Amino acid sequence: MPDALDFEQPLLELETRIAALQADEDPVRVRDEIRRLEDRLDRLRQRTYAGLTAWQRTQLARHPKRPYTRDWCRLLFEDFLELHGDRRFGDDAAIVGGLARFEGRSVVVLGHQKGRDTREKIARNFGMPHPEGYRKAERLMDLAERFAKPVVTFIDTPGAYPGLGAEERGQAEAIARNLRRMAALRTPLVAVVTGEGGSGGALAIGMGNRVLMLEYAVYAVISPEGCAAILWGDAGKAPEAATVMKTTAPDLMRLGVIDDIVPEPVGGAHRDWDAAAAHLRDALRRHLDELTGRSGDTLVAERYEKFRRMGVVAEE
Amino acid sequence: MAWFRRKPEESEGAARKVVIQEGLWIKCDACKEIIYRAEVERAGRVCPKCLHPFRITSRERIGQLADPGSFEEHDAGLSSADPLAFKDTKRYRDRLKAARQKTAMPEAVVCGTCLIGGFPVVLCVFEFAFLGGSMGSVVGEKLTRAIERAIAKHVPVIIVSASGGARMQEGILSLMQMAKTSAALERLAAARLTYVSVLTDPTTGGVTASFAMLGDVIVSEPRALIGFAGPRVIAETIRQPLPEGFQRAEFLLEHGQIDLIVDRRELKDTLRRLLAFFADQPTPPA
User: Fold this and answer.
1) pTM surpassing 0.90?
2) DSSP letter string, B27-93
3) Which CATH entry fits the domain spanning B56-279: 3.40.30.10, 3.60.10.10, 3.90.226.10, 1.10.760.10?
4) For burial by CB atoms within 10 Å, which of A193, A285, B141, B272 has the most?
5) Nearest CA in chain B to A198
């Protein structure tokens, strides 16, 4: 079990012991012992992942082996053609997008993209887009609408990049404009929070007719570290902040912010990409099928009502 | 992203506090000059030496913009329900109570209808002193209702922002107010009604990244801090000091992000001219 998180250490120890026994010269002698340990491992695994805290889920959502947008594209679509650039300033590698086939139908795909190794991480700015990334997204949504294609987005970002160039080129405006663009989009939009849903940088491609969330994904108004630094004056209180902010998929379901939770294989999507993709494929098919055939007016009106209802207020 | 901070000790994003002594003189924190208080009040709370606009309350702002006696508040009875039962070092409920006592305001935005230069408008004004003008469910709901009311009455919308962004204590629900208000503005635009966004010091985070940057015309007060991320977060991210004037209104104007910088004493007249232009009517005399 490479890249084990701290709460996975007991699992790792068991796995190591089993592996050692399996290497034993006399397989018959240790067979019962292996079986006994495997049973224990199974039970421990179920127990560990059934009772994950918000912070543990955050760690899983950020797991370095978790599938990223281009992985999902490869796993879910028969064909994916990446398109580049915002036609204004540049091409932001932290947001990828393009044309894809999902079970035969044409869709426009958008998603945040993190890097796998150090070089790619830097090239993709750790999945933190600049304004040109959001403007590329807007351009692709325009394209989707013009040709009546549904849009599928994958959300996985620590947040929009807080830097000089981003501010100079209008990070806030780029996000705001996308929100208004999505509000008016006349084709179905299904957004999937696959990993980290980092604040406005996530929402900027997330105003779906349906918003789905992977079981261990998180979605929040600010990172737990940022919240902890501001409210406790100590970024080390991130685990507490994650808990009080209610960032997990079940929390967001209760708050009426998401429509569906997509199950992950035990231990998380990174353990079994194919199994994770199979679950997501089912969910995507179901939601796209339901939305297909609705008129542009209906889709816009339904999306408006959906977000119009969000929030809790007391009224005298 | 840090949208508001408990310790405003950094120079860039910090509140420019005016230490108002009991006497006749005050000190401008921007230029450090000692200035005559009555002169500041006469100028609409602008420093007569350096023209720095001091932060003012929503009531003062409405007084400066609305035709006398015309402002009628709506949805004043909305208050936060603490949907997450949020508690950090203090309970959110206690923070709300303290903010209500401090400001004598029920929430961080005041919305209503009024006349500006004789033109009927929906006017929404942020109260920065109320939890940093942060946007939670109530702020989002009040703005959305105000925009919907403008559509129903067929009048333009003016929002005067002063906000650190989304309110952390309502978590994801605060984030969703960005979507809600932006969607309402899309309807306003489809109804061909004007929206003028007025940015004042400071306007950052989720407020900037939603309705504040969606104005048909975006006006700012001089020197207002306007940005997506707060200056301290950016400085920590890039690990170098920020250039002089970064994220100030003048910087945004230079970078093509806003239309106009307007002195506070000219703001009402500018709004009047804009309203007259979009209404296709002659600008009425001041």
Assistant:
1) yes
2) E-TTT--EEEHHHHHHTTSB-TTT-PBPP--HHHHHHHHSPTT--EEE-TTEEE--TT--BSSSBHH
3) 3.90.226.10
4) A193
5) B1
